């Protein structure tokens, strides 16, 4: 069994899968609940499936890009569970899992998908895919781009997903299939199912050194001291 954790967006998603089957899943499309609810919901979903934590084979976690705080919460929880249970960690690229989720839903070949996550300052985390045999094959590796530049790279009828989809669509002259609701594709089951594929290939991450994929450096700024001269 693989436990999948999705915390890269405003969605909190947790799922339990085994051999391609979804055993249990929970999703909350609410901001600022990840920190309080992630670990308790992990325990509840495993219990709901009639299992114990000791039945887990690995923990798969959405590794980014995405929300800085959300990614840190998810990665921290995943590492803690893996260390406590002595099981492997699977670091799943957020955009890959979202594209795979849509590819399974569409169930058609040659559909173009673009994942666009809001990176602030009129920029997006951007990656493109094409569907083949029910899977999403990466065409443009994930990178951070100005929304206008991302729009230039899209072909007509591309399905655009993520909370940066509208931002890119505003710069695009082509007809796009825009899906802005992150709850449709950024889900725990997407992380767990792709995690199963990675586990079969033994693509595990080192628990001690694994970090989220941010693409952009985040610098903590101290509040200015009004008494300083």
How does this structure look, described?
The strands form two sheets. A five-stranded mixed sheet has the order 3-2-1-4-5, with helices on both faces. Helix 1 crosses helix 2 (68-85) and helix 3 (94-106) crosses helix 6 (188-200). Strand 7 (123-132) and strand 8 (135-146) form a beta hairpin. It contains six helices and ten strands. With 229 residues, it is an alpha/beta fold. 31% of the residues lie in helices and 28% in strands.
Q: Name the shape in a single word.
A: globular
Share of β-strand residues: 25-35%
Give the number of helices.
6
Count every beta strand, where a strand is a DSSP E run of 2 or more residues: 10
**Structural class computed from helices and strand pairing:** alpha/beta
> What order do the SSEs take from the amino end to the carboxyl end, as H and E?
EEEHEHEHEEEHEHEH
Please summarize the sheet with the most strands: 5 strands, mixed
End-to-end span in angstroms?
Answer: 59 Å
Contiguous low-pLDDT stretches (5 residues minimum) are: 218-222
Oligomer: single chain
Kindly provide the radius of gyration, computed on alpha-carbon positions and rounded to a whole number of angstroms: 18 Å
* Proportion of residues in helical segments: 25-40%
Average pLDDT score:
91
Strand order of the largest sheet: 3-2-1-4-5
Summarize this structure as a short list of keywords or feature phrases.
single chain; 229 residues; alpha/beta; 6 helices; globular
């Amino acid at each position: 069994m693989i436990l999948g954790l999705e915390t890269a967006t405003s969605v909190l998603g947790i799922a339990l899968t085994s051999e391609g089957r979804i055993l249990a899943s929970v999703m909350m499309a609410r901001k600022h609940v990840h920190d309080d609810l992630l670990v308790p919901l992990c325990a509840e979903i495993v219990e709901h499936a009639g299992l114990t934590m000791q039945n887990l084979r690995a923990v798969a976690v959405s590794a980014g890009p995405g929300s800085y705080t959300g990614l840190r919460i998810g990665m921290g929880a995943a590492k803690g569970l893996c260390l406590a249970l002595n099981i492997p960690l699977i670091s799943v690229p957020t955009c890959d899992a979202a594209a795979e989720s849509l590819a399974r839903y569409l169930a058609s070949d040659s559909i173009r998908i673009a994942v666009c996550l809001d990176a602030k300052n009129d920029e997006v985390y951007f990656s493109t895919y094409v569907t083949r045999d029910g899977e999403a094959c990466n065409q443009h590796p994930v990178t951070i781009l100005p929304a206008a530049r991302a729009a230039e790279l899209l072909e007509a009828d591309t399905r655009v997903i993520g909370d940066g989809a509208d931002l890119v669509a505003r710069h695009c002259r082509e007809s796009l299939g825009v899906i802005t609701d992150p709850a449709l594709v950024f889900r725990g089951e997407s992380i767990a199912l792709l995690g199963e594929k990675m586990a079969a290939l033994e693509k595990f991450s080192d628990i001690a050194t694994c970090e989220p994929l941010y693409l952009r450096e985040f610098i903590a700024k101290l509040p200015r001291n009004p008494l300083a001269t």
